[in-house]
Design goal:
Helices cover about 10% and strands about 35% of the residues. It contains two helices and twelve strands.
């Protein structure tokens, strides 16, 4: 199966209501879990991070509309930030995989909150099918929020970062 075919399959699965998809063809195996998948409680997931061979993928950027709220929750820490979300752009995941903020556990994160990024600058890595894809920004601005924890699974089109445009 070619990389393009895998990408198209991921797009089709993300549009469906499937929770999990598994495919085996000879020695080739593919397993995809969508946002509809729920992990059984009590099972921990062990994540290891082997040597990284980055490849380049593009990132979709979409404006965020401000959420409408009926009441004010006094327990929210970032309420002022949430009210300004209408001014931010979303940096979304171009694929399903595992999100990493740095090239390896002993290296610093590509970017952190408060950093200014340019178009084409690397922002993270997403591991998909044992391939480590370096994700480049398609927008310039200041990182205001990292939406995903390091070494966590991400879905296609999931928001990774909020960026204040420059």
């Amino acid at each position: 199966m070619t990389f393009k075919e895998v990408q198209e399959l991921i797009k089709q699965i993300s549009k469906s209501n499937l929770a999990e998809f598994k495919m085996k063809d000879g020695e080739f195996e593919l397993a995809i879990r969508t946002k509809h998948f729920s992990k059984p409680k009590g099972i921990s997931q062990l994540v290891s991070q082997p040597a990284i061979i980055p490849t380049v993928a593009s990132v979709a950027v979409t404006p965020v509309s401000a959420p409408t709220t009926l009441g004010v929750d006094p327990l929210k820490k970032d309420q002022a930030d949430e009210e300004n979300e209408g001014n931010y752009l979303e940096v979304k995941s171009p694929m399903v995989g595992t999100f990493y903020r740095s090239q390896s556990p002993d290296k610093p994160a590509y970017i952190k909150v408060g950093d200014t990024i340019e178009k084409g600058s690397p922002v993270c890595i997403i591991e998909a099918m044992k391939l480590f894809n370096e994700i480049e920004s398609e927008v310039a601005g200041k990182i205001v929020k990292v939406m995903v924890e390091d070494a966590q699974p991400v879905e296609y089109d999931q928001v990774l970062f909020l960026v204040e445009p420059s």
